[in-house]
């Protein structure tokens, strides 16, 4: 578009007969320092702008203190009291630091021979969500990117290979030798854990049995197969961090001609802000304020035409024609000579040229529109649109329950997929809140990838899920097939996920044990329905607290069927690539790649332990034996110490036996061997019986209390009780024992 108008202006300039020349300029040169007076603004080759400083009095506060190490040639700056070398700082809120790579190496018997764990990101800075990527390198490598504050998994990556012949240089998408994922789920700060699945005991052709994992600036890492042929030292790679002002008011930190910008993209948005220069100004907004830009001094910053005078103003500029010329002074034809001859001829030629160009531009727009329609049709065909339409026509799916949305319709519903509409992110995609034209609020899921070989299966899943009528399953309204990756449209559940409620002290305090038991029962009934009543049966494959949504009444709604598989008739198991979430994956499925309904049972067992303990699946603080909740839970249960781990807020007189029975049920679900686990139907029946018994007991207690009040005129005892802080859970698998024992997953 820009090139089109540039050509138009040049043609018109040639017609009128003007030759390019520089506009007359009234300059207003100004310069400003980026550091405080009497403070150095450089360490080696790195500029140090305020609010950062090389001495205490030169920085805004201790959080922005930089130490210049002169033992290097040239000197190198470091964040004070850390080993984080600074490569670049901008006053726009970013800095780049060099961070070492995490690694672990093994010998032929699987014993650990060397390892290195890099430091977490400095706690006063945030990991930039868009400028970095998470990388894992190795032939039996497994790594986690972990939220530093919430202590839960953000991203996971698994890299594998059995020799260099299958490894492709530059590619990390397949996971062969190198795995890559984004860092968009990082809340504020993060650190990396790396290990191995089988400690390189089954990778016979691997030269170097080492695993590496790190976060790196996107443009600063290109994978090469040679990286698998040598053991890395303490290499460092650049990572982009964000910084904000958090301990001063906006008016105090932001100086003249600036605006205060709240850090809306950060989880800590309420904690801080940044300063920015107003339009037409530049400089350091934290120091002495921003100075006016002299647009007239630089011809590229103004659009005054030739034969015009450029006059600088505060924050802008003005154009005025020289004597003997008239016009607004801007653009190619801003100033035209009053005596120019022949005016009518020139205007006629110009008008004709403009008409031709506009006609050509309209043809170009029509071509683009046609091409867009062709692309939508192409994606519609590739994503199985015809198959879906045929099944609707054949009655396999109802047109009322399986709606095919257009790409434009969903684009409008999400305001062009505005980031502020994001309500959830996971390993399989991003979920947006959307407003349809009829006013209905929906959740629109944009998947990360689509396997072309699984199109028919995808359409079958859409049809099956759209026909499921279960009050505890999020309703699928339909899909959009006009985009490269299909979009799914679900009903919107407005009270967040079970995981969110179990991680928030305020929300968890409202979740009493009866509420938790009801959520467990409803979830079990959903899985039982999927395994036994749906046709064909469905294995969810990613049951976790983050995929259990809650409405205003805390009714459970199972969601996210992106990893689900339909079970063909006369089959009890599927051989498939491992997918799921760390902490919830069935260890037998991990070893054999055989997916069964019992894999969902194991994952549900982990959720049961979450509801009982209010703990997270992976804890990276405290004793090592407590870091993996499921293993710790089972060990305490074996030693008759169950109440040592239960959430005190759900334990009360009268429900002790009930809690013990649920704990024993969770233990059966968590059996390593799938054959030893109960079916989801058995689990649902048992939980339903416990819930009915609890209701019966509650009713009897209420009647007894009322009778006592009548006979003794005493106040009845309160029945309800509250639960407090809770998080998520996980289980351990004995493949990784480096600092923490990572559960195995498929990563990407």
What does this structure look like?
There is one protein chain. With 748 residues, the protein is an alpha+beta fold. Among the domains are: 94-242, no CATH class; 385-491, Phosphorylase Kinase, domain 1, CATH 3.30.200.20; 498-712, Orthogonal Bundle (Transferase(Phosphotransferase), domain 1). It contains 14 helices and 37 strands. Strand 2 and strand 3 (46-47) form a beta hairpin. Helix 9 (513-533) packs antiparallel against helix 11 (597-613), helix 11 runs antiparallel to helix 13 and helix 13 (656-669) runs antiparallel to helix 14. It starts with a helix and ends in a 36-residue tail after the last helix.
How are the elements arranged and paired?
Elements: H1 2-16, E1 24-26, E2 42-43, E3 46-47, E4 66-69, E5 76-79, E6 85-89, E7 94-100, E8 102-106, E9 112-116, E10 126-127, E11 132-137, E12 140-147, E13 153-160, E14 178-181, E15 190-196, E16 210-217, E17 236-242, H2 250-253, E18 258-262, E19 273-277, E20 281-282, E21 291-292, E22 308-313, E23 316-321, E24 325-326, E25 336-337, H3 343-382, H4 385-393, E26 403-405, H5 407-413, E27 422-426, E28 429-435, E29 441-447, H6 455-467, E30 476-480, E31 487-491, H7 498-503, H8 505-508, H9 513-533, E32 538-539, E33 548-550, E34 556-558, E35 565-566, E36 573-575, H10 587-592, E37 594-596, H11 597-613, H12 629-638, H13 656-669, H14 680-712
Parallel strand pairs: 1-22, 26-30
Antiparallel strand pairs: 2-3, 4-5, 6-7, 7-17, 8-9, 8-16, 10-17, 11-14, 11-16, 12-13, 12-15, 18-19, 20-21, 22-23, 24-25, 27-28, 28-29, 29-31, 30-31, 32-35, 33-34, 36-37
